[in-house]
Amino acid sequence: MDVVLPNNWQPRPYQRELWNHLASGGKRAVALWHRRAGKDDVCLHFAAVSAMEKVATYWHMLPEAAQARKAIWEAINPHTGIRRIDEAFPKEIRENTREQEMMIRFKNGSTWQVVGSDNYNSLIGSPPYGVVFSEWSVGNPSSWPYLRPILAENGGWAMFIYTARGKNHGYSTFNMANKSSDWFCQKLTVDETGVFSKESLQRELDELRSEYGEEEGEAYYNQEYYCSFEAAIPGSYYIGEINKVQKEGRVTKVLYDESVPVETWWDIGKSDYTSIWFSQNYGNEVRVIDYEQFNNKKPSFYTDMLSKKGYHYGTHHLPHDAGYDRFEGCAFEQLRALKPEWEWLVHDRTPSVNADINRVRVFFSRCVFDADKCESGLECLRSYRKKYNNAKKCFENEPYHDWASHGADAFRYLAVHNKASAFLDLKKITDDRGFPTINAWQTSSTKSNRI
After folding, report:
1. Which domains does the chain have, with CATH numbers?
2. Cis amide linkage into residue 6, ω under 30° from 0
3. pTM reported for the whole predicted model
4. pLDDT in tens, 203-231
């Protein structure tokens, strides 16, 4: 049976410019299109065509693997009642479909898989030839620097499809692509596509104002339907503080001072990320000189990486769970065994994350960040946000856990436990496991738990 691709589908008029760019051999594209403009549909159908033309590996990447399953793998086209992947990849061209792995193997040898940017560098198999970065503005920004050399080497293609989420890495990607002759770059709002009627848009605006409040609801509306980068990320904890830090010129070039010890502040992950901030104290000022984030690495990787930086270290500050199974064994013991000459401290768990977040907000006023070395860490802080309850239509009073959480948690430890902090009178003690630690809540009577 002959199958014609794209399968029973044609690009809408406003989608045709992107489709033509890809079909004519374009390798890089940014589609900053409003919500429900059909971004993923274009990419799914183009991936089907590309997979038949060149035998290779193809990825459709969303911020998280769990989200990818719901949004792409299991998604139903409401107009046809058919799974979107079945529309784009008819069963006649498939060798098999692996539901658990969210992977399709085609009869010609190509594979297409739905993946998450939360574990992009631990995926097993052939390197991809084509990658769709869906919802790029809330995806892990580290995934592109990791995959870019692969696609450059094999001549592969990459598409970035998203709506705006403040002036984060999505904003930077759009501006870069818009200035480059090698990239397709397009911004489409509801005024350009005509997907929604004026009545339905007004209804959406009214509902968003009701759910989020007048100001935040309108910001969300402009972000989703008019691709505005000016709106703050809904639920973001620190965006106002970071904007102030930038406005005051405190995101700049920060030189390492060899005469001042460098403190490191860790959030340790096993399959999640291990994030590390590097700081130097100058009286009341904290100079944040560096940031690193990796996953699926052994303890020796981190001690080697720290050694190669050549910094003169003071104390390496570890979170409360460093005494447990984080690196397939006790992280504290493994790190101390590798570098016994360094000082390692394990901090106690603090009573309230929300109280800590308020302390972080105040702590920003003391910080200066190195613009280049801290760029990815600042992205984490910008994107750190509250969890949204879709059923109740409101933000919950707890953080949303994603790629940004780990860098934000490590910075929280820096803010709460730093010796320059005005919040605490810190005292070194030994915990019940015999680990050197700091009990952040064993404070003097004059400074007891005050903000």
Report:
1. 13-193 (3.40.50.300), 198-234 (no CATH), 244-438 (3.30.420.280)
2. yes
3. 0.74
4. 999 999 988 888 778 888 999 999 998 87
